[in-house]
Amino acid sequence: MARLKKEVQTYIVRSLAQFNTPQETAILVKEEFGIDVTRQQCEAYDPTKRIGKDLSQALKKEFEATREEYLDKPKNIPIANQTVRLELYQKLITKNKSPAMALKILKQAAQEAGGQFTNRQEITGKDGKPIETINSNVPTESYLKARERALNEY
Fold it and tell me: Alpha helices, DSSP H only, in 96-139?
């Protein structure tokens, strides 16, 4: 196993930090640098694997920084932004000649704007008002009597 240059080592660490498999990383190294590396060689640069536990501190820090940046990336991807998606729908509507397709695009845009594709849930009380909560300290005996009365009535 040949000793790799620092540049290649850093490339492997960054690739693995972006959740590429060792096999994918080996192929990327071959394409980028023209160097044949094995999957096992690549795996040794992954500090989350047992074989990578002895990786240098500098490469471990590089791995952690790259992984953190990679996981924060969706904020920077245009299609992850609702405004960008709605603008794309608008462009599709203007280019489109088919009424059926235009209706589908309009429906998709309305769903997007209406928040149908989010996990947000809004819970409200009666008539959209806030849920009313009452906290009171009721003696156990009083509670049991009221409960018994309610059960007997039904």
Answer: 99-113
Distance CA 48, CA 60 (A): 9
- The helix (H) or strand (E) run that includes residue 20 is none
The predicted pLDDT at position 79 comes to 78
Above pLDDT 90, what percent of the chain? 40
Kindly report the pTM of this predicted structure: 0.55
CA distances from 109 to 42, 68, 101, 105, 118 (A): 44, 32, 12, 6, 14
CA distances from 63 to 21, 54, 121 (A): 14, 13, 36
Angle at the Cα of 83 from the Cα atoms of 82 and 88, rounded to 5 degrees: 95
**At which residue do the structure tokens 């729908």 appear?**
89
DSSP per residue, 33-74? H-----HHHHHTT-TTSGGGTT--HHHHHHHHHHHHHHHHGG
